[in-house]
Amino acid sequence: MKVHVESTATPEEAEAIARSLAAHLGVAVDVHVGDGDAPAARADPPETAYPLADDLGPTDRERDLWAEIEDLREGGPAKYRERLAEQGKLFVRDRLDLWFGSEGGTHSAGDAGASDGDPAGIRFEDGTFAGFDDWHPNAPGRGGDGEGDDGEDGEGDDDADRLPADGLLTGAATFEGRDVHYMANDFTVKAGSMAAKGVEKFLRMQQRALKTGNPVLYLMDSSGGRIDQQSGFFANREGIGKYYYNHSMLSGAVPQICVLYGPCIAGAAYTPVFADFTVMVEGMSAMAIASPRMVEMVTGEEIDLEALGGPRVHAEESGSADLVAEDEEHARDLVADLIGYLPDRAGEKPPRAGSKPPKYSPEGIDGLIPQSPTRPYDVRDLLDRIADAESVFELKAGYGPEVVTAFCRIDGRPVGVIANQPTERSGAIFPDAAEKAAEFVWTCDAYEVPLLYLCDTPGFMAGSQVERDGILEKGKKLIYATSSATVPKQTVVVRKAYGAGIYAMGGPAYDPESVIGLPSGEIAIMGPEAAINAVYARKLAEIDDPDERAAEEKRLREEYREEIDVHRMASEVVIDEIVPPSTLREELAARFAFYADVRKDLPEKKHGTVL
Questions:
Q1: What is the C-alpha to C-alpha distance for residues 334 and 324, in angstroms, rounded to an integer?
Q2: Among 446-450, 504-508, 544-548, whose mean pLDDT is lowest?
Q3: Whole-angstrom distance between the N-terminal and C-terminal Cα of the chain?
Q4: Cβ neighbours of residue 454 under 8 Å, at least 6 residues apart?
Q5: d(CA 308, CA 298)
């Protein structure tokens, strides 16, 4: 290498420069002073310089590291890994391979001694060596032989002290073409329990998600906090409690999706309920504030985990589970479908897909809707005539079934549907249904998913039991969520829209972009039967002849129905339009497209107090 320095340099300075550069760069250096052709000083690299060659490769140092990584990837003691098959579930790294393994990756052990490298869709993993110094025989000062876990070095697969990655894996991956953060418990390490190092990894993953704005997948299989190691992570500022603070900060900022693969107890059970969407796997998952043994100690109640907090309990009674999967593969498929309706982060539009014709022809809509407001029909059949084929994705189907909450696509555009279900209690809104619908509206609004209300309800249910169950409290949440939603809203009066039901279901007073009616629609304080009994009960009771009384009741009902008919509502411009049922799909597609970028502002305040 030739180096030119200023002509004022002395021979000693030229020699010093030559020696220094040769040692630093590992090559011979000629130093020329000024414009001189002959070098004023020359230096060869010292013999200790790193040799330049084309055949450099890993040394034992890297091979030893790969051996340690492969050992850590084996998880906890072998006997616990063997039990997973009996429980019908995958080892955590096989689970990650199921989720991310077919989408291309970056890491490979190559010739360095590892066999498989990372699952293909994992971009990188953080914290593989968490707690390494505390238990691994190869850790500095522990007398290991550098060969990893061969079952003969005093550690062995049956060593209960194996704590690879502290039982919790975190990193980043590509899922269905989307960049996501992930965490996954390793149930072979102390039943997936949480301790200091794993907690630190979990918190870092959440905090990084706040920075990147990418969705988070929680693959939960945890028995809760590690009680015998709770010092330093339980009540600390940066302990388990910070999980739920971070969940709260992430809520509505990025989609959080949790899948349960095992008994998530105590602190571990809060992650699924804080997530935007929770999937439980049939036959293996449960969540509860305390274990059955603890419940018996505290209350004396004897109960098994399935009855305490299994999928049926949370899908049908508590409402904490959005979806129940048949097995691990089905859980992944459900989440793959679900994430397709959501953007990566708040403020972005959800991804559109190609338009598909509906499953059934819209020509059948009018024939589907009975003339009588009391005759049932399945609103899912109506959805199948409005939405793109195979796009209806229902959530919480077993909870509050009087209202259907579902994602779908209309002309390729994701839409959140809130629909009364006439096959369930005539579509009356009960407390559970109101709460379910409120949460769904709130979530759709957070992630810019437009809302479609399909109204066919006699209103909120009345009675002593629903009052005790909080019909007013939960009903106001639905009205509040509908009022506060700033995404485009379209409301269809399908048939009956009685009482406060029209308020909760996006009626004219609730700032929808449109309220359109089908010819079967009616809007009233109450239905004809109740109204006639309320207003004319005494007059009718004074008619002695049964036939005459029945005729008068019929006349009054018909007169009343003329007052509440959708044509009267359109005539008085209560609703925007009456549309032929066979055009409902194209009407909605046009309106959602036109109002896609509508802007709505809420009053300036910190937040409302209803929720």
A1: 9
A2: 544-548
A3: 72
A4: 379, 382, 383, 417, 418, 419, 420, 492, 494, 505
A5: 14
Rounded to whole angstroms, how far apart are CA atoms 226 and 222?
10
> Length of the chain in residues, anyone?
611
Residue 150 has pLDDT above 80, yes or no: no
Beta-bridge mates of residue 173? 122, 180
| Phi, psi (deg, nearest 5) at residue 404 | -95, 125
Which element (helix H / strand E) includes 95?
helix 92-100
Residue of higher predicted confidence among 335 and 195: 335
The candidate with the shortest Cα–Cα distance to 480, out of 607, 321, 341, is 607
As given in the structure block, the two tokens for residue 159 are: 């060593």
- Cα(545)–Cα(559) distance, rounded to whole angstroms? 21
Q: What is the pTM of this model?
A: 0.85
What distance in Å separates the CA atoms of residue 69 and residue 145, rounded to the nearest whole number?
Answer: 15
Indicate the residue type of 365: I
Strands 403-410 and 393-395 come out as antiparallel
Q: How far apart are CA 109 and CA 92, in angstroms?
A: 20
State the Cα–Cα distance between residues 122 and 94, nearest whole angstrom: 12
pLDDT of residue 5: 86
Give the integer Cα–Cα distance in Å for 87 and 423.
38
- Return the pLDDT at 375: 94
Radius of gyration of the chain (CA): 33
Cα–Cα nearest to 136, from 79, 64, 243: 64
Average pLDDT, the chain: 88
pLDDT at 539: 76
Across 107-129, average pLDDT: 63
- Of residues 518, 520, 492, 506, the one with CA closest to residue 588: 492
Task: Give percent of the chain with pLDDT exceeding 70.
Answer: 90
Confidence band, pLDDT 50/70/90 cuts, at residue 395: very high
pLDDT per residue over 46-64, tens digit each?
875 555 566 788 889 999 9
List Cα–Cα distances, 228 to 145, 164, 224, in angstroms: 30, 17, 12
Please tell me the distance from the alpha carbon of residue 416 to that of residue 440, in angstroms, as a whole number. Answer: 8
Q: Which of 61-70, 286-295, 539-548 has the lowest mean pLDDT?
A: 539-548
Question: Alpha helix (H) ranges present in 514-572?
Answer: 528-541, 546-564, 566-571
Q: Yes or no: say if 398 and 315 are a contact pair by the CB < 8 Å rule.
A: yes
Query: Which of 433, 419, 424 minimizes the C-alpha distance to 376?
Result: 424
Token pair 């894996």 is found at 169
| Phi, psi torsion values for 170, nearest 5 degrees | -140, 155
| 347 phi and psi angles, rounded to 5 deg | 95, -15
Only one residue has tokens 């407001």, namely: 373
Euclidean distance between CA atoms 40 and 202, whole angstroms = 61
Residue 126: which of 71, 177, 75, 197 has the closest Cα? 197
Find the helix or strand (DSSP H, E) in which 365 lies.
helix 365-368
What number is the average pLDDT over the span 177-194? 93
